[in-house]
Design brief:
Oligomer: single chain
Radius of gyration: 40 Å
Largest sheet: 3 strands, antiparallel
Shape: elongated
Number of helices: 1
Distance between the termini: 38 Å
Structural class: mainly beta
Order of helices and strands: HEEEEEEEEEEEEEEE
Number of strands: 15
Strand order of the largest sheet: 5-4-8
């Protein structure tokens, strides 16, 4: 018993343990309905000339230049479309066969305004690719966040998103 006495005194005199406990609850929630959209691409202008047994020339003002072909005048644009420089051709060897293929594709003009209509931008129909996204529909989309930290999402229509999260942190110091 005498041997246990110092141990008993040590246990009696030990300080009481203190602990600080912190708890935090962070809830984050978001619902989203996609917006409708329209994208379109303009088609550019192209010019080509090919042939055989032909001599091309270009006349600008009063000056004619032989062995030159015209094309697109990028220095003269009207609403984004270049002017055309005409190519004149004459048969090089009269009486012989000749071939001439000339083509031009006049590209789209630059639209002056884009007007929204029913949530969509009313873009002009262009020769390039046009993509239309109808956007989402709310449907039954709903978010419920309770004070207990429980968050629930109800599914919506197409193009909707519901995200919810709860983070619980307990710190003992």
């Amino acid at each position: 018993m005498k041997r246990l006495l110092p141990l008993i005194f040590l246990l009696i005199s030990a300080p009481a343990a203190k602990a600080e406990i912190k708890a935090s609850y962070i809830t984050s929630a978001q619902i989203k309905v996609e917006m409708p959209y329209v994208t379109t691409q303009k088609a550019g202008s192209t010019y080509s000339l090919s042939g055989s047994n032909l001599t091309p020339s270009v006349t600008i003002g009063d000056t004619t230049t032989s062995n030159k072909i015209g094309g697109l005048n990028l220095g003269s644009l009207t609403n984004g479309v270049p002017a055309l420089i005409q190519t004149d051709t004459t048969v090089t060897n009269a009486g012989s066969a000749f071939e001439k293929v000339e083509s031009i594709f006049v590209g789209d003009t630059t639209p002056s305004t884009v007007t929204p209509s029913s949530g969509l931008a009313a873009l002009p129909v262009l020769s390039g690719t046009t993509t239309i996204g109808s956007g989402g529909t709310k449907g039954d989309l709903a978010l419920t966040s309770l004070s207990s930290g429980i968050t629930t999402c109800s599914a919506g229509g197409s193009g909707t998103l519901c995200t919810a999260s709860t983070t619980i942190t307990i710190e003992i110091d």
